[in-house]
Design goal:
This protein is of the alpha+beta class and 343 residues long. 29% of the residues lie in helices and 28% in strands. It contains nine helices and 19 strands.
């Protein structure tokens, strides 16, 4: 038995190990914070006792998060998904206009494992997932970090509705029930509302995004720093619509403007993207995946050539999803930031 001294009196010493307190029936001759064994042998002298103030809370945070990650993996493996690890330093990428990539002298840090997983789908794997770090040069706040945990899974011959249903099942499993309580909201997971991007503007702001003058909207809603139509709409969405989403039950927003398709299929002039919101938080982004190499080649200026060759080899009809693991952990533990405890 060994552990860190967290308290002692004239008759006993309390040590902390594996998240539990253990009492040793002697007064240690060492100081609070030191690590000793059951014979009062000093194993490590503590020279920075400050973390003792939040030792239990910090330990509990990481213990919960590690268990959370293990549960996610177990859930997907039990449903036939195979876990993979893909490279995070890439020589070539597909540059999506709304993603801020981090470039190093040795290549780009992966903003997601998407392309590498799709290469494997082209080889005949049909159910894959990865839970790992991704990197984007975003401004950091309570919901964004330059390095963050992302979960992506892909299933051949599945629809976006299938994948979103699977995500809700995962969230119920992690939550241990059908109701989420977060920031004063009670969200019933047994119902999913599907609504289009266009319908949301009509419902909450009486705006027809297909005919409205976005320069007028920019002035009306005080949007600064851009003249781009889609960026103006996105800013209005974030400030005036998102607060209504997922407040009673999960909301899936779909059919985004075609310019926001990224690697999703486009149908009827709309991108077949599906974003899930719970308690106003955006948690995931699901695509009906575009499998035509020619379309992808025409859509992007900067291309990942090995990915294009894989698509030309052939990828089956597939749906996939990316989930912000840190946000999901924050939601289910009623936290107000994705930031981890600091030393």
């Amino acid at each position: 038995m060994f552990g860190r001294i967290i308290n002692k009196n004239q008759k006993s010493t309390t040590i902390f190990k594996d998240g539990k307190r253990h009492t040793l029936l002697f007064k240690s001759k060492y100081n609070t914070g030191d690590i000793i064994d059951s014979q009062d042998t000093l194993l490590t002298q503590c020279k920075n006792p400050e973390p003792l103030k939040k030792l239990t809370q910090t330990y509990d945070y990481y213990n919960k998060k590690l268990s959370f990650i293990e549960e996610i993996k177990e859930f997907l493996k039990n449903r036939g998904y195979r876990e993979v690890l893909t490279k995070k330093l890439k020589r070539e990428i597909i540059k999506e206009p709304n993603i801020n990539y981090i470039k190093t002298p040795y290549g780009y840090l992966a903003s997601s494992p998407e392309l590498e997983l799709k290469k494997l789908l082209c080889l005949g794997f049909d159910k894959l997932f990865e839970l790992n770090f991704a990197y984007r040069d975003d401004l950091e706040d309570n919901l964004h970090r330059k390095e963050f945990l992302i979960l992506e899974w892909y299933r051949a011959l599945a629809s976006p509705e299938d994948i979103n249903k699977e995500l809700i099942e995962l969230i119920k499993h992690l939550n241990g029930g059908n109701t989420i309580s977060y920031n004063g909201l009670l969200v019933n997971l047994d119902k999913i509302e599907y609504i289009t991007y266009r319908e949301l503007f009509s419902k909450y702001l009486s705006i027809n995004i297909e005919s409205v003058d976005t320069s007028r909207l920019k002035v009306e809603f005080g949007v600064e720093g851009t003249e781009d139509r889609l960026e103006i709409l996105d800013a209005i969405f974030s400030l005036h619509i998102q607060k209504h989403l997922g407040v009673k039950h999960p909301t899936v927003v779909y059919n985004f403007p075609k310019e926001r398709a990224a690697l999703a299929k486009v149908s009827g002039g709309w991108a077949l993207r599906y974003e899930l919101y719970i308690a106003t938080l955006e948690l995931s982004n699901c695509y009906l995946e575009e499998t035509d190499a020619k379309i992808i080649k025409n859509r992007f200026k900067t291309l990942d050539k090995p990915f294009l060759r894989a698509l030309e080899f052939g990828m089956p009809p597939t749906s996939g999803i990316a989930v912000g693991v840190d946000r999901l952990f924050m939601l289910l533990n009623n936290l107000n930031t994705i930031e981890e405890p600091q030393w």
